[in-house]
Amino acid sequence: MDSQQDHFIVCGLGSLGQQTIINLRKFSQAPDEISIAAIDLVEPSYWEVEALPNLLSQPVLVGDSRQYGLLKQAGIDRCRSILVVTSDESVNVETALAARRLNPQVHIVLRSSRYNLNQLLKRQLGQFVALDAMALPANTFALAGMGNNILSVFKIGQLPFRVVKRVVEKGELRFDGVPLQRMFRRNSRLLHLSPHKPLPPSAEAQTASKIFHRWQPDVTLQAGDTVTMVEIDYAYDRKETTSSKNLWDRLRSQAQEFISSGWHRRFLNFWGHGEQQSLRRITAIALFTILISWPVGTLLIKQAIPDLSWARAITLGVILLLGGYGDVFGGLEETNLPIWLPFVCLLIALASLFLVLGVLSLLADQLLSSRFEFLRRRPQLPKRNHVIVVGLGRLGYRAINILKAFNQPLIAITHELAYPELVSEVPLLTGNILQQLTSANLAGAKSVLALTDDPMLNLEIALIVSEAIAESSSDQNMQASPESLTETQFANSQTSHQTNGRSDFTPIIRTVNRALSDNVAVLLPQAKAYSVYALSAEAFAGAAFGENILSLFRLQNQTILVTEYHIATDDHLNQKLLADVAYGYGVVPILLKTRSAQGGWRELPMPGDDLRLQSGDRLHILSSINGLRRIERGDAISPRTWQLQLGKPLNSQVLLAAGNTLMQLSGQDLALCRSLMDNLPATLELALYPYQAYRLQEELQRYIPTQLSAL
Question: What pLDDT, in 10s, does the model give residues 120-138?
Fold first, then answer.
């Protein structure tokens, strides 16, 4: 890489900016491999890592990042990516525009929560990624609070994924006694295995990841082992997109454009929903009807009774509109009237009456609804197995929506209501947060999510709730007299009190940095403390290298990123087998999108190791920051060397299928594989990763005698 590709600029040195610099440095082996410049309005008074200033290639530039001179001084002309992560989103957008003007090729990573604006900027600027630092970790907080076996949920397009963690039960056909090689299934992949008993060193596999592919493929699962899987919806259909579906998509797109046209929006604005719009609409229709009906009724009466004066005809028209049908026709002689006149006037009177009643009913409805608004039914506070969410900022609001999607009982507490729609959707307590905690049925709570912007308040909330639950648990254990408790029960009750109450209660704390998170873990062993910016920073660092970060979650104390790669012609991933990508770089491919013969996209969830990447493909993977770094640098671990011994088959007709299998699973040339099959028995040395080798042996044994041994 040249110097232009290695240079980065970070604008904003808050917690997110500092953590981003730390993660950017993880992509380099040598100090001079990449260079990083930083800009902030003031010199930071606190560095989360003491040696962090040494990671910069030049002293911090103090000033406004929107200024052209400062950006040029930071090296915008030779910059590969600029990461704009200040806390002011308006400043971020202006800085991005200035950077694009100074360098049309620079890749921009923007911190922004404005989805619509982000999409518009992406179309206009190109080479642009916008991430919401609060949205990315919301799943982590919400699912940690639920305390079940789901670690993450996310969607790629319309395809839903979930990451689940479970303990293998004895006799469970899906897991118990199954070798790890068989855990790579059509709709799921094994991510991590935590054996309940120590495995011998020979069971460990050569791997590029500290989480994925750690064990040899012949290791079998046992009851008590903990497995983490990524799964998709089992009802998903793998059929590729057909041309008829593409036609339907085009027709639907055109219909959506027609619906969203200007005249339609104006039409909806007038006939839209809502009490105020309904009242204005009905009132306008009533006035319009009166203005038409009054002269029409007057003219009809005057025409039917020529001797009637105009003043009398106008008066009768008004009386008719006010519901005086009997007053008009009761005073007229029947012989002087045409037969059609009473019926037409009756229709006019009824229409006027209905419109007047409509306006009056809407007025009465609004008056009553405003008078009795306080009687609106609100959700009741759950008493057991609920999650307490404290703080309704952007992070808290997103966490609540995720919990609602899982039908998780919850109670929200906030000092100021920023989202009024939640009043009728979730049990809500407003006011002083610490005082409202006592009303949240703490004794039956499953967990508390302390998500306010104040980390010290979050810690205080977790301590208060933990102590309250400890006291409640201790009181329940001691309700019986001490004499009735066995020695073991009494000891357990004391241990429960010392460990802050129930073992199933989990405080989830939002912190500002990893140092505070580590300290909280020591103070509250049951608690899970996450720094929002430390979690998001890994996604920002990955996006700086041009990758599309879709989501993230925590697994084995590491952040796992859901990342999309666009395979280009000059990309070093082009023409590689997925086995080389997965095992060489230590990642897990979960979705491959490739072009079909008809030109549409063909989706392959949980793609096989034997697929080969082509230019234009889109590959979605699960990876730690270490995996992204390896892919960026092309630093794959080398496969092992294996000796493949092939015997003669009983039926020579299987040689063609055997040769094709050898070619697909090993990546060898097709001519070499077929030549080998024509000269059996034969021996061949192959460079394969363990999971490749075991699968190759299993598949070839279906056709010919096969023996595979590591050299």
Answer: 998 888 889 999 998 889 9
**Residue type at 322 in one-letter notation:** L
State the DSSP H helix or E strand holding residue 601, giving kind and residue range, or none if neither.
strand 601-605
Q: Please tell me whether residue 146 adopts helix, strand or coil conformation.
A: helix
In whole angstroms, what is the distance from residue 99 CA to residue 77 CA?
Answer: 9
Whole-number Å distance between alpha carbons of 316 and 302: 10
pLDDT of residue 498: 42
656 alpha carbon, distance to own chain's centre: 46
Tokens of 3: 């110097």
Contact 416, 476 (CB under 8 A): no
Query: What angle, rounded to 10 degrees, do the helices at 625-633 and 578-585 form?
Result: 120
Q: What angle do CA 25, 26, 31 make, to 5 degrees?
A: 50
Euclidean distance between CA atoms 667 and 689, whole angstroms:
12
- Taking a C-beta distance cutoff of 8 angstroms, is the pair 180, 205 a contact? no
Which residues, 6+ apart, have CB-to-CB distance to 508 below 8 Å? 141, 144, 145, 447, 448, 449, 450, 451, 527, 528, 529, 530
Q: Nearest CA to 414 among 402, 405, 423?
A: 423
User: SS3 for 583?
Assistant: helix
* pLDDT exceeds cutoff 60 at 488: no
Taking the CA atoms of residue 89, residue 90, residue 94 and residue 100 in that order, the dihedral angle to the nearest 10 degrees is 30
Q: What is the pLDDT of residues 634-680, one digit of tens each?
A: 889 999 999 989 888 878 888 888 888 899 888 888 888 888 888 88
- Give every CB contact of residue 116 below 8 A, 6+ residues apart in sequence: none
pLDDT tops 50 at residue 24: yes
> Which two structure tokens, joined as six digits, stand for 25?
């440095």
Q: How many CB atoms lie within 10 A of CB 393?
A: 17
DSSP-derived secondary structure letter, 381: P
In the predicted model, is pLDDT for residue 321 greater than 80?
no
Does residue 202 sit in helix, strand or coil?
A: helix
Q: What is the side-by-side order of every strand in the sheet holding 159-167? A: 150-156, 159-167, 226-232, 188-194
Question: Rounded distance, CA 61 to CA 39, Å?
Answer: 5
- Size (the chain), residues: 711
- Residue 6 · residue 35 · CB < 8 Å: yes
pLDDT of residue 497: 41
Chain centroid to CA 675: 50
Q: How many CA atoms lie within 13 A of 42 on its CB side?
A: 5
> Residue 69 corresponds to which amino acid?
G
- As a dihedral over the C-alpha atoms of residue 229, residue 234, residue 239, residue 245, rounded to 10 degrees, the angle is -110
> For the whole model, what pTM was predicted?
0.72
Query: CA-CA distance, 693 to 248, in Å (whole number)?
Result: 44
Q: What is the pLDDT of residue 493?
A: 43
- Cβ-contact 642, 217 below 8 angstroms: no
Question: For 533-587, where are the E strands, in sequence order?
Answer: 548-555, 558-566
Helix, strand or coil for residue 413?
strand
Residue 157 binned pLDDT confidence (cut-offs 50, 70, 90): confident
Nearest CA among 105, 57, 52 for reference residue 77: 105
